[in-house]
Batch of 4 targets.
Target 1
Amino acid sequence: MIIQTIAEKFIRNENFLCCVKILVVNCGSTSIKYKVFSYEKGEFDLLCSGIVERIGEEVSYFRYKSKRGRIEYERKIKDHSEGFGHVLRALTDPEKGVIEKPREIVGVGHRVVHGGEEIVEPVVIDEKVEEVIEKYQVMAPLHNPANLVGIRILKEIFPDAVHVAVFDTAFHATLPEEAYVYAIPYEYYERYRIRRYGFHGTSHGYVARKAAEILGRPLEELRIITCHLGAGCSMAAVKYGKSIDTSMGLTPLEGLVMATRCGDIDPSIVYFLVKWTGMSLDDVYKLLNEKSGLLGISGISKDLRLVKEAAARGDRRAELAIRIFAYRVKKYIGAYAAAMGGVDAIVFTAGIGERAPWMRELILEGLEFLGIKIDTKKNQEPEKYGGVVSSDDSKIKILVIPTDEERAIAEETVKRIRTSR
């Protein structure tokens, strides 16, 4: 087959410079996010992007955007298999598509949330890898099952492509024992592998590398605190290119206050909620994951923008939710500066991190003793200043860097294709 010939040349010849196409997929429990990149002569170019939302509901949403046009509509899409059918039709659309046939896709990069201790780097997917993803479904019940569904469907749609899994947990595989072992009887780590794993690793790694590029310094010489602040929030201490600590733990529930997740709490709260309210453990687990965070404190919304609007109207709980959110990030900045013996740069990324300058200022307020000086003008329009929003004389550089997990997954996919045989 033609694509196999192209793939073989691409894999075996480092100097083979033909343009190849990489599909990147993030398959959620009720959604499919996707992008297609072209890769040629070491450069990536985004050809199209899109999303299928509310899969399985009465009304689903399909969106597709390429350089050749847009496709958008609403209709019921019953499952992921049907959703990927819509994706394939858009990709091969005669007028707006980016491929003529499925065999033009040489590699498919899959975002997978949890790989445990068994997979600590991006890997070409085989049966063993699928077994590991399935094994860790219990620790990522909202993500790993959907990730696996996407892998199996796309293997059928693109049988000639090399399928690569890029794990959220992989970047944090460098955590030292003192950072990942919990202070419970050690036998539970040995038996069940209960430990800190961390998530958003693809994002943390990507923005740390970009920060080093922007600052014109080797990543291996920098101590960077990365703040991924969106619906899900996490931070990482990246010391000389390696993650040495991160805020999320065994699951994405630990750490910062998030849209609907509580973050750090006294574990005894679970006991007393069960004892006092009669809720089951499953009920409490759902409460902490889906009804807490900004939503739980404010009682208004999980969307920080709506919480801010309510706070501006004088709503006390909304104002409190904002202060708690900022305070938790501030605490982790101090902790990670101590863990790394100092800090050279702090990076903000993801929806809130990138698009809420007022929140960045609130988080950094009071940290002037560390040598932090934010430039309010730059902070309003970071893209005009190369992403650097600190003043020229700030000891610690503050950066705003849009995350691009899909681009990072595409890069890792190309690397694995080159080394696969």
Note: The longest helix spans residues 316-340.
Target 2
Amino acid sequence: MKIIAMYLPQYHAIPENDEWWGKDFTEWRSVASAAPYFEGHYQPHVPHKSIGYYNLLDAKFIKKQHAMALRYGVSAFCYYYYNFSGKTLLEAPLRVISASTDISNEFCLCWANHDWTRAWYGQSKEVLIRQEYSHENAVRIFEGVKGYFANDRYITIDRKPLFLVFNPGDNPLMAKYNELWQYLARAEGYAGLFLAGMEALGDRIPPAVHGFDAAVEFAPDWACALEFARENRDCVRKIDYRTVVMNMNRKPIPPYTRFRCVFPGWDNSPRYKGAATLFTDCSPGVFKYALEAAVNYTRKHLPENLHYVFINAWNEWGEGCHLEPDERYGFSSLNIVREICGGGCAASEA
């Protein structure tokens, strides 16, 4: 059983963010300035002193971060990959990680194929960079990722690199992309690509529609968040974490391969302010229940070569969704991962 944590490579300044959000902007600016909206609301989330407000251009920290993950049973990461018609953003940490001989975590990539808009930080839907779908851009995506596929640590399934697409339904040419990518992958000496679409935004389109091999459950599954549909969208929306976890575990088993995914919590008020969505009554106990259920499901319903469980996320601090330790709860989530999935015998850092 391998744990794959979703990883946001955003925590470093780039010229585009400087232009759009202000000089030296990173996610930390929103995280550090967050404030509670009601009594008992846990904000801001302050990173544990062992990691601080880190910079992902710091190769020494990246090595430390990945070693920490491995000690606690997070044996692999899925890095979000931002490519817009051949123009990549936030790729510098991925290059460091891929080139490092001091990192042993396996990894895969998830193409974040949505438009980049101001809505990411609770503003307008103004498009800053748009995804354009075409044969030429499909080739550009493959050319951008094939170097990562060649890394010895890249996850392969049946000699096929595992490649995720965040929301394949957004791409009207997704099936054509699949055909072209399979051809290009075979030309590189692989058996093809193992393609998996994330069931983002409640999307449960069967993978076969796009010619994909599998789906990855998105956590939280918004279709299971019953309160979400009933809340006023102009104010903070509260959803019970325990209810959503139970609803996710009660979903019917699909007639296709679905990798399970769990989440330790969610609160995007650092980004969306008073229009945020957050989960209440999050607790290590419920997270442990969710992870155990996902692991048991995987053992029971998927063949051994597909024994992967995803966690959203390693470091989505702007969404209050992180395995990385904070000053309030410390290493509790990571200790749960290690307890259930293993991770060496290093002493706890809590």
Note: The domain at 2-341 is CATH 3.20.20.80 (TIM Barrel).
Target 3
Amino acid sequence: MKSSVINSRWKEYIEGHLNDDPFSLSLESTKERDTERLEAIRQIQARQKALKKLPGFAYNFDLIFPPPVSVEQASSEWTARFKSLLFSGKSCADLTGGMGIDAFYLSENFEKVDYVEQDRQLCEIARHNFDQLNKRNVSVTFGSTEDFLRSNKIYYDLIYLDPSRRGVGNKRLFKLEECLPNVVDLEDLLMKQAQRVLIKLSPLADLKHLFAQLAHLKNIWVVSVKNECKEILCELNDSGCNDKVHAISLEDGHADSLSFDFKEEENTNVSYAYPDRFLYEPNSSLLKAGAFKTAANRYGVSKLHIHSHLYTSDKQIDFPGRTFRLIKWLQPDKKVLKREIGSRKVNVIARNFPLKPDEIIKKFNLTPGEDLYLIATTLMDQKRVIILCERIK
């Protein structure tokens, strides 16, 4: 594999056809050696998966890419870089190495990183790529997480794991104890071998349940990129009693963050109000973290309804999410909307409303697009309204 895809001729082929359809390429008649050409096409397919989430790697044609499924499971450059900024020290172990993206970024803040992977092909690819990327402080070990932990003699500053959430027949797994490796069963062993343990989980994970499952869990980061929740990060350690949740939103080199605990959220009192001059929709990290009342209290805004998770104020503030300037309230009536909107294009948001955005568009015969927004929601007096507004970017 290496001799073919790193051959200069095939690298030029991959670069020249990076934006072409892999299936069409595979049908082309050619006198080239089929095995090498098909491997080059597989490289194109894998790199296309990485163009958005791993642009710095996708355009490096000295690297070898693993199968597309490994690319899909890898962290993005943005989330991997964020993780690398949380910790530093002398030693780190990535016990579910995969494509090696997390190990690559963690190596920037640790003197030595041990990459461990039970797939031999991925190990070979990672070893080649780390060498090409001049990562001399990363060592590659072939083997399972469990075998490595049983034979390990090093006490690490950090152990990192990204348990596989795919079972037999590529079935999606959602329960933490079903993922591989099973970090619930391995928790005590992990804590004996590291000062801190960082576990990457699906955005669907139940945060409160995680605190009940993992005895050493102290911090959870809910990480979103461009307002799409990507990862749940769990830190296990024995120092202090933090039990904090951190809502992190990464976009265009900027990070919004809010830290809280569930006791604070439960005990916080908030005010409710009818829509004022400005409306705010929290980013996806805040919504997933459940910091509904905490966000209102911290930023001095009022909620529209206990379940709407939309906020309002008379003066514009810098809120972690989208900001809108109110134009007027409207009844959810087709004639009213037609009179007020006419043929203009609108974007639709629904919060605590019986219809979804696409259902609203269809029912009221709307055309999506432009900078106008319709926010369908329920107010504190249980009245359902559609709020016409414009987004402030």
Note: The mean pLDDT is 92.
Target 4
Amino acid sequence: MFKIFDLHCDSAQNLLKGDDLSKVTRHHVDLPKLRKGGFGGVVWACWVSPKEKEPFLKALELVDSSLRFVEQHARWFSLAKSWHQLRADRINVILGVEGGHIFDETTVQFKTLHRLGVRVYTLTWNNSNRLAHSALDNDRLGLTRLGREYIKLMGKSGVLVDLSHSSTRTTLDVCRELATPPIASHSCLRGLKQFARNISDRALRAIGSRGGVCGVNFSGYHLGKSGVVEHIMYIKRQTSIHTAAIGSDFDGISDPVLPHAGHIQKLVGTMLGAGLSGPEIEKVCGGNFLRVFKQVC
């Protein structure tokens, strides 16, 4: 069984609702499913709707509920703020926040989240914000002046900049200015399914050229007529196998091509059938992301 490190799960929403993810639930992700799937870790994304009246407060609530869950179930989970805190005997949780609209014109909120242990920052969601433009809003516009200040700060702070949902121009701007490798945590490929939310070839190659990674998400709509492994093979052809990863978007999508996290090992057989070697599959399942995490954090 290959150890899985998933770059994007939206399970924090379910924790905030009060669901007990230590038991079997109706959700894509819970402890029994993660154990069955052979997960070594997840990026626990705290997504905040742009419609929230107090988005930063919502982000804090999501982070707090996630921290409490990990603390209460320390037998199985461990919070990793850095490479040295990763544990081989636990499901490692790396905290992320999704959507730069949670930030105002200062950097205090970022610094607060950093102290709480948040290490992945998805610059945009489907909406543009004070920092950057999103692919669904305007693919030709990129970072703002404030966004450039944030990128410089993030580059010095040991955090991962996540470009899923970002416009192609935002991605190119970040790849030019960021001192560390970026990621696109949960993005299918526009070259296989023409959908603005999917990442363009130009953006993918920019991430790959910087040593970053792109996690393929499991949404049937995003994938189009191609499967997860076909998107992984597309990344390999456009850049290299070192850029490919898994970013399921479990609990953030309603149409996953796998029922839940417990089924994720089925991808391994499909990858073998597609001609990937054992070492290559190990990189996709988590090795590529962990390489970047070690370098940045």
Note: The first strand starts at residue 4 and ends at 9.
